[in-house]
């Protein structure tokens, strides 16, 4: 019987896990690497094995592609739970998006290229290339990947299935609250494109002013917001990174590109790979209406698509991380490579 079936002890695991750079050996490692895609520094969180450490006898890994904003720190509790569900037998990695973490405290001190004249690094295609380069560089060709996508991470994962040398490494995909079609038509897409975008200069002025506040005041404001919304306070450090104007600019730039590029459902790719795709849709999702789930079931009747019955939010990592971790861990156990 797996850990997931035995108990919910992993709910407390995150509070006991430490995050550090690779020179320290703790349960969870936050490792900064520099990629060839414009030399953009990228934070990678790993459980089990470092990405530069030999995988040894491990022939499977779990790789999670985040949503937008792509800050791996928001995924610590979720993926810690997944790792525990797998009895710590399979390395678990999470990769964020290029430019979404300035990493000022990194010992590498590698500057992140500005968005000006580097738009190709931070748009949707650039983020896809970022993931392609990562897999080709760090995942051995004989290792199978259990690919978790969250939100726009699902769109990128679906695109990865079109690339032969990447696709052949993917064992199974798990799409959580997948934004893989008609993003601009969803409720939140309408708000972003029709309400926020026209006044974005005002919003930009506001967050640039906010960034000038002393850190202690910013932390206090974020903490108060967390209290009101019921967000766990252990995400304070990650949320503080999101107050960096350079990060917000790239997050917003990518979001607008998503509204333009993510339109029609890629039925061809889904049909070709439906035997290794798991879809999980929400019932309270402002980005992915329930009708998208129903239409997928009509168009691909035998797709492994599930509608949440627990009212878990799109941003599940904030309040339902452990609950989702248990479910995803069980799915991965079901689809492990048969040795």
UniProtKB/TrEMBL annotation:
Coiled coil: none annotated. SUPFAM superfamilies: alpha/beta-Hydrolases. One of its GO terms (molecular function) is sterol ester esterase activity. Gene3D superfamilies: alpha/beta hydrolase. It is an enzyme of class 3 (hydrolase). GO terms for cellular component: endoplasmic reticulum; lipid droplet. It catalyses: a cholesterol ester + H2O = cholesterol + a fatty acid + H(+). Keywords: Endoplasmic reticulum, Hydrolase, Lipid droplet. The keyword Endoplasmic reticulum applies. One of its GO terms (biological process) is lipid storage. It is found in: Endoplasmic reticulum; Lipid droplet. Its EC number is 3.1.1.13. Belongs to the AB hydrolase superfamily. LDAH family. This is Lipid droplet-associated hydrolase. It comes from Aedes aegypti (Yellowfever mosquito).
